[in-house]
Amino acid sequence: MTRKDLRAELRLEVSNKGWLAIDGNFVPCMLRDMSDTGVLIICSEEIEVGQKLQFFCELFPKQSARLHN
Fold first, then answer.
1. CB-side exposure of 19: number of CA atoms within 13 Å?
2. Which residues are within 8 A (CB) of 12 and not within 5 positions of it... i.e. 6 or more apart?
């Protein structure tokens, strides 16, 4: 049984491979969904709250996204 998503914003489901830069090391990750105010990224590395990250992903051929905090 699938749970209903109770978040107020519409989430766009995607499945894009990307990279996270964590303390200067690049690790693979997967972009699963996004909205106007956030993204869901799955990564096998442990990430701490408040840790500085950079995210790189190709959304479309020759059109990439780069997010950082």
1. 10
2. 33, 34, 35
From 6-10, 15-19, 33-37, 50-54, the region with the lowest mean pLDDT: 6-10
Convert the pLDDT of each residue in 24-67 to its tens digit: 889 999 999 988 888 899 999 888 888 888 888 877 777 676 76
Please give the Cα distance from 24 to 21 (Å, whole number).
Answer: 6
CA atoms within 13 A on the CB side of 8: 1
Tokens matching residue 67: 């997010």
Per-position DSSP letters for 5-38, written without gaps between them: P--SS--EEEEEEEEEEETTEEEEEEEEEE-SS-
Half-sphere exposure of 40 (CA within 13 A, CB side): 11
